[in-house]
């Protein structure tokens, strides 16, 4: 029997890659010598990690970007202090959830030291708005001098040798003082709302190892929730920022496309332009999203390097009107969400109705089933357009096709897509939603991010709660409700699920999706600030 | 022998349509009783029309939008005065060049009267920034209560009965006080850089009836050059604003897409999104373009109704830096332009070099032939994507396929397009041009709009001088050089032409194309003001 190409050529590469990754966390293993995550199938990494930290580390990693910048300016913290606290959490986060694809602690430390030295030599001046801020990066962002594999075994040799090819976002953030030490996991083909690949395996949810952290930016979801970084850079073409944000109980924005640059990202989706991907920051505080967008857009000016980016200023600290109208979306008309999601929606609706700080009008919105069904069909076909490229890359290494990869590859229309129909239905849907906002005088739509709270991986097949907004390019933020799944009351699963077990989802946070009209990204941020207040977070 | 569908069903409709059009100009026919255009194959309508006007009419139709607004505010002119002067020119323009597809003089007059009445009742107040301004409209813009056929015989019954379906631009301009009375001609399928259809026939060049006015907004080109309106609304997906602007000696902007709305336009290109069409105003003065963009964008706020439009403010009276660098493009590396175009480029280059009012640096730029060849191939294939829709509409009426329609239909790849390759090459080309601007420190590129000055129709097959910029969505303005074709010196035609006769192009203006980076639309306007000064226009 001869070995196949995957076994012979690629398994050794995978082994080597994993060894490099494991080696990075070796110094941290003594910290967890008394913990055995395998003893609890619902292991809660978030709780366990906090037990392993000093009060100072806890305090530092609880600060926002602006606070960390201020503490440095006041000489209360150094970049090295900040780095040490976050990187310790990063190591533990990876040990417990397998959220990293690459770790480079020595470089991170060196960079933090260099930033501290810069301040000493420059009268306390900061390099830029991210001076000393640990930012985690989704693996598909090309990083100079490092392998970028985008979750494909075939790209395990793909070292970014030309610095010009590096992700523009990485360049902008580095120029603004960011500290990098962790690149986070993503699924094979990037087209799962889960995080599993053949290189580093599966990433788990930070609150319950039985369930998924979401995906495709699932490594970011886990890393940010566990405070491995202040800000994580995800990307989203069908829910890949928002689903992990919801599953991991953090904030994540999918801004209107072409405000943040994806230049220098590796993906099998190149050339598919009916739905554009966008990057989006994922954070523990809504202030961090506002801060990030302001610094990246207004100071980073990505349009100077990326001709696809719109030179539209970010309006920091956007102010909402005195009266706000919310449309509540409880079903996409195709799959009804679980009890926990429904409970989250009712809870927020109730809190808004009772809120006295602002006039909040609440409505229920009902979508046209026929339109939505056709929109979902076209939506999937559009994703399927890039199947030939994915097939080619997968075939190159002969790596096993993972179950959720197969789900995605099946989106492609066997007889080839009709791109004209795809786009015409997309535009109809876009106009339909625009007019829905207009006719109902809506400021925002609140709805599910996914059919359920953080889900067991096999069930993550229905993308439409998130992907409908990629189709029409209306921006969203996932926000926290403060609630978690309750196995005693959330007895009913999503309508497409037959194997729902309410006990699977212990500790799973209930995150919901807020949507505004195109280019109203700042208004979304302002509204999440309001929601945090309304919900007492 | 039985009659075919076209002859039996559609020819009577065409006859009826033409009769309606002719009837509108009947009252004006006595004006031209001593003129027989057919006696001169190079008949110059522009010169002849001016002989038929009173000094007052000449004066009014020589004013810019801002001047016409000021004259109304100063009570020196009424909307009816303005309407009468422009509409007389419009009637004559149509008689000589066949530039209209629909004329509705009584409605225009009624509207002008209504606007005057409004001022009387409202203490002299204007309805909006286009109060009393005659604006001509390309036929494909859906007009409530009227047929919109987009140059297709099959759409001769397509009356826009629901006012909501009307072109958003028409609604915005009407709300701002514009006066409509002329809808202008366009070619079959809209995809010619010439203007001929089976409904109203061929439109001719205002300076020389033997040559084309360009297209597809060729009716606008002729109408605006002959001052039937102050501003003409064209649209451009491959050169359709710029080629007629160049051929007719006027200004025309193709702004970055998604600043002006095309909502409510009729075309066979729906769903083709790799290259977006955009509207663009065509004018006799660069000030009118600046004025139009400011009023339409900043006051019209098209994004409130059209979710595809970017809420990016128009910067009126943009100021250029003290030093400006121009890259001169003399060939697209595929077809070399004619002597007249080369002479125009040399002339502008020379004037810029000698100009002392600002530091103008002039460079020659050379494009990568291999990239450009591939880009043009993909460019044509992208246009060809919509062939099935065009075929279907053409088949419906069985109207004859015009020669330039066949050229366009042949763009389609027989084996079906690879949309991924189309878009990947597009993005490579976009980045290539962006980096060309950056590496050469260019502010602008000046180059041909087309391979020749206004051309005889059959030769209008090479689109790439204009369409390369649709492919990469870099904005352009066509500007006047002040020169015209000279049959004594412009002896050599474009390199793809075997039947060039320098005597064909008598009086043809030499218009060139100015290009800036994406979203630098205002900078283009400012530069054309500078060029007007440099060239003494």
From TrEMBL, chains A, B:
<dbReference type="InterPro" id="IPR036928">
    <property type="entry name" value="AS_sf"/>
</dbReference>
<dbReference type="Pfam" id="PF01425">
    <property type="entry name" value="Amidase"/>
</dbReference>
<protein>
    <recommendedName>
        <fullName>amidase</fullName>
        <ecNumber>3.5.1.4</ecNumber>
    </recommendedName>
</protein>
<feature type="domain" description="Amidase">
    <location>
        <begin position="83"/>
        <end position="524"/>
    </location>
</feature>
<feature type="active site" description="Charge relay system">
    <location>
        <position position="216"/>
    </location>
</feature>
<dbReference type="InterPro" id="IPR020556">
    <property type="entry name" value="Amidase_CS"/>
</dbReference>
<comment type="similarity">
    <text>Belongs to the amidase family.</text>
</comment>
<dbReference type="InterPro" id="IPR023631">
    <property type="entry name" value="Amidase_dom"/>
</dbReference>
<feature type="active site" description="Acyl-ester intermediate">
    <location>
        <position position="240"/>
    </location>
</feature>
<dbReference type="GO" id="GO:0004040">
    <property type="term" value="F:amidase activity"/>
</dbReference>
<keyword id="KW-0378">Hydrolase</keyword>
<feature type="active site" description="Charge relay system">
    <location>
        <position position="138"/>
    </location>
</feature>
């Amino acid at each position: 029997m001869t070995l196949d190409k995957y076994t012979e050529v690629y398994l050794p590469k995978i082994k080597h890659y994993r060894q490099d990754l494991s080696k990075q966390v070796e110094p941290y293993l003594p910290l967890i010598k008394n913990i055995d995550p395998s003893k609890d199938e619902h292991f809660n990494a978030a709780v366990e990690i906090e037990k392993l930290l000093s009060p100072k580390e806890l305090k530092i990693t609880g600060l926002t970007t602006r606070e960390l910048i201020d503490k440095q300016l006041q000489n209360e913290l150094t970049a090295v202090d900040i780095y040490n606290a976050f990187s310790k959490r990063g190591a533990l986060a990876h040990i417990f959830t397998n959220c990293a694809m690459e770790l480079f602690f020595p470089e991170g430390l060196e960079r933090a030291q260099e930033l501290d030295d810069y301040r000493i030599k420059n009268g306390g001046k900061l390099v830029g708005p991210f001076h000393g801020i640990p930012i985690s990066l989704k693996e598909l962002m090309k990083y100079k001098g490092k392998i970028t594999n985008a979750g494909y075994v075939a790209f395990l040799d793909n070292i970014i040798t030309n610095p010009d090819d590096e992700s523009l976002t990485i360049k902008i953030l580095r120029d603004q003082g960011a500290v990098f030490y962790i690149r986070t996991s993503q699924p094979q083909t990037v087209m799962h709302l889960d995080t599993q690949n053949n290189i580093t395996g599966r990433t788990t949810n930070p609150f319950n190892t039985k369930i998924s952290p979401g995906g495709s930016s699932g490594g970011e979801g886990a890393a940010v929730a566990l405070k491995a970084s202040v800000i994580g850079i995800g990307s989203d073409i069908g829910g890949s920022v928002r689903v992990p944000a919801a599953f991991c109980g953090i904030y994540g924005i999918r801004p209107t496309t072409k405000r943040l640059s994806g230049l220098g990202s590796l993906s099998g989706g190149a050339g598919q332009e009916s739905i554009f991907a966008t990057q989006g920051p994922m954070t523990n505080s809504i202030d961090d999203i506002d801060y990030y967008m302001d610094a990246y857009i207004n100071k980073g000016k990505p349009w100077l390097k990326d001709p696809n980016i719109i030179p539209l200023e970010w309006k920091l600290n956007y102010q909402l009107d005195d009266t706000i109208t919310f449309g509540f979306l409880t079903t996409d008309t195709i799959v009804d969400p679980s009890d926990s999601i429904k409970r989250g929606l009712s809870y927020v609706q109730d809190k808004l109705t009772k809120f006295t700080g602002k006039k909040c009008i609440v409505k229920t919105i009902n979508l046209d089933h026929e339109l939505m069904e056709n929109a979902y069909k076209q939506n999937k076909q559009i994703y399927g357009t890039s199947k030939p490229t994915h097939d080619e890359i997968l075939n190159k290494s002969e790596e096993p096709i993972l179950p959720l990869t197969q789900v995605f590859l099946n989106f492609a229309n066997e007889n080839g897509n009709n791109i004209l129909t795809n786009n015409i239905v997309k535009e109809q849907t876009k106009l339909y939603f625009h007019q829905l906002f207009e006719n109902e005088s809506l400021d925002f739509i609140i709805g599910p991010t996914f059919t359920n709270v953080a889900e067991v991986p096999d069930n993550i097949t229905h993308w439409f709660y998130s992907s409908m907004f990629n189709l029409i390019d209306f921006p969203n933020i996932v926000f926290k409700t403060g609630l978690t799944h309750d196995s005693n009351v959330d007895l009913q699963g999503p309508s497409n699920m037959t194997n729902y077990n309410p006990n699977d989802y212990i500790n799973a946070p209930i995150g919901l999706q807020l949507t505004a009209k195109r280019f109203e990204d700042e208004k979304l941020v302002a509204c999440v600030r309001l929601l945090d207040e309304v919900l007492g977070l």
